[in-house]
## 1
Amino acid sequence: MNEQKKSGFATLIGRPNVGKSTLMNQLIGQKIAITSHKPQTTRNRIQTVYTSEKGQIVFLDTPGIHKAKNKLGEYMVDVAERTLKEVDVVLWLVEPTTFIGAGERHIAEQLARISTPVILVINKIDTVKKEEVFAFIDAYRKILDFAEIIPVSALKGTNSGTLIELIYKYLPYGPMFYDEDTVTDQPLRQITAELIREKALKLLDEEIPHGIAVSIDIMKQRIRGKLWDIEATIICERASHKGIIIGKGGAMLKKIGSAARYEIEKQLEAKVNLKLWVKVKKDWRDSDFLIKNFGYDKKEV
């Protein structure tokens, strides 16, 4: 009976690069959020759905909370902070350490203002000794009153089952929001653009990736859905960046294209004919119009 099912929203927050997207992909069991070792990988609020006998958890993976340096940064922080009040439970991901820096304290201040239950998730415990974990729990317990504290490894999947159980504990009873075979509400075009951006982030130098966006120009199916034609443009902020993204004789762009095509084919379960272009749009991260144009629209948050 539906009344016995639990259904609600959980959000993952934390400083950039603590493993939020990796954890969400691990819990869902498939790749939806892009991951990379560079901060600010996730820019929009990504919604994914976990369904089991117990009910349904709708996960919101938000951009990392940080001090904004431009309009895109402000938008990202705004998305993350607004989400905290709209969900049933907050998962705060942190690194395994006893040192609690300014970034973490800033997040703790945001969380102290809300009444939503907060589960502290200490990630990357595969990188430390087991006996050290108690010290990390102790250090964090002093800065906020948590509903639960759980150590996990998003990479290895350690304690992910227990974490799911804890989330259900704080969800209300009620009907499911999505069909049970729904995994994400993200449109295919957005997932495709994000996969291309992920490969660019992984293959390019430190400085450039912050300044790139990807727009899908053409995405159409042919041969009864067995082949997709996709044309996309990588937008960068400077002419010098364009040269680096294209690479010598087009080598870097080819590399990004073939790595992205492999991931997109897995996602679409079909062959993909992918063409990539590179364009310069100076300072697009400080332009309201361009931010909106590349899919980051405040009204839709």
Note: The first strand starts at residue 6 and ends at 13.
## 2
Amino acid sequence: MEKTKVLFVHQEITPYLDENPISLVGRNLPEGIQMKGKEIRIFMPRFGSINERRNQLHEVIRLSGMNLIINDTDHPLIIKVASIQKARMQIYFIDNDDFFTKRKSTITDKDGVFFEDNDDRTVFFSRGVIETIRKLNWSPDIIHCHGWMSALIPIYIKKVFRDNPLFNESKIVYSLYDDDFTETFRDGFDKKMKLQNITPEDVTHLQDANYVNLMKTALDFSDGVIMGSEKINPELEDYARSLNIPLLEYQSPENYVDAYNDFYDNIK
């Protein structure tokens, strides 16, 4: 029997970024799922704060070289990889000089100001993951997204790539966390992120692209939702519970690998 394939799309993974509950899930969940006998791939943004030499990142030339057009501007897509040897895991990093490499922080500048182009970075990251999976010719059974920078993956998979044989049977699981931001993406985000087959009705929430509406859009196109933190934005929690999709309650660090693994098996 062929192994179940799980694609993990994480905004944060330790040891590449500081330890916190979300980055620890990024480090430990894929390893645990791999130990359950599933085949995995892992993606995250190559934030400029990640030390390439210490973490032994290197570019994968055969996967790099594509340009992604966002708002009529070409942005080169660079793919890098690193390995966590102890866990026998390889991490793929989505990189671009302007969006990631040149900045020595993640989503805010050194003064704590939210980057104005986090909207473009979100589009670039989500599209970059999908295009790289296409180049790898790897068909995931489960796509599990973590962190708001992965929020466009569900709509792109379900609308833009719905007829692509790599993705047409993929099930999307979205984890909600307490990673709210208070800022709003720039006006026109609902138009900027659109690709073929996405209709205005699909992105109604994104006419006002704040954190809650970004998450609602992700949930609208997901096949299952996981409460990744003990406390979730109440509006989002109510919205998630109102949808007719499977929902997994918050699981403790001691239990979540088993619980998530069962959730994957039941949803696919």
Note: Strands lie at 5-10, 39-45, 58-59, 66-70, 73-84, 89-95, 142-146, 171-176, 224-227, 247-248.
